[in-house]
Amino acid sequence: MLNFELYNPTQYVFGKDQTQKLATLVPQNAKVLLAYGGGSIFKNGVYNQVKAALDGFEVIEFGGIEPNPRFETLMKAVEIIREQNLNFILAVGGGSVIDGVKFISGAVNYEGDPIEILKNRVLFTDVTKVIPFGTVLTLPATGSEMNSGAVVTIEATQEKLTLGGSALFPKFSICDPSVIASLPKRQIQNGVVDAFTHVMEQYLTYPHDALLQDRFAESILQTLIEIGPDVAENPTDYKLASNYMWCATMALNGLIQKGVPSDWATHMIGHELTALYEIDHARTLAIIGPNLYRVMFDSKKEKLAQYGKRVWNIEGNNEDEIAQKAIDKTVAFFHIMGMKTRLSENTENYQETADFIVNRFEERGWKALGEKQNVTIDKVKAIVEMSY
Length: 388
Prior knowledge:
By secondary structure, the chain is an alpha/beta fold. It is 48% helix and 12% strand.
């Protein structure tokens, strides 16, 4: 097992009717920026719950944070915090709003051009230099409610880049599974596949000695397979909703990544598809993931076979056969979850995609990705072309 440190200071507040606890969770002297997205919180009642809980606090609202939050939009919020001298942010929304707030939190006091935060993958480690924030989760998917990472899009250059650091954990996150009842089916499907792929990035590498971590990962995968199709059809079922929300959090709160190698090449390639074509994040993962497993089959086949046997109960004549069937099962599950797993099914102008992504990666110096740093530029091109 690899050496690791486990640090997660987020207070996770789970269950029905927990939004009312905001009054005690937000610091009493807080001047709050209330950040949200496109307005779904007005339709599902969450906005009214939040405003009621914040009665007595000074609150300034900032709406319009996009799916795949834009650097350009977030900088407007940074200016408001600076001008109004606000000292706390409350993110009400899904992963995009929470990711956006993490950027805002770090950018307010950043010394230098804030675009460097994304271009240079800045890690924030000093809590005195960021604006503290909490979250009210409305869309389970990214796990951003209990981790310190974020992804932000620079619209001007069509780039989707990351930031993070130990100072960017939410102080608290309120997670009420009943809020998914009003979500569109597509968003729930995306959330299940997003969480599933988060686990795969940390699990589907190569055999190692962290036995418990594998079992943690496999249990999340099995639960998502069991409940995923049903929760998309029956989001008012609290048993399904609560397990879905907890799976999405557990998939990326840091626990299953400790002591093990991890990949993340699927995400790095998938981010480019979102930046180029506005394809939903989860759908880019469903396009790229299986083909990455195919191109990198020789280095992943042992873990693919373990995954096939333990998660899908696959039997076969040999490890290679089981591993191949495991990829096929994964694609079939993505189809059940409403994913279209070919790039040509998601956009018309895909012919030059591989060359564009390869050029981008070369410009950034990203010439070796994956758990073994063996996802080379040539492999990236093969993966994307296979995904057409």
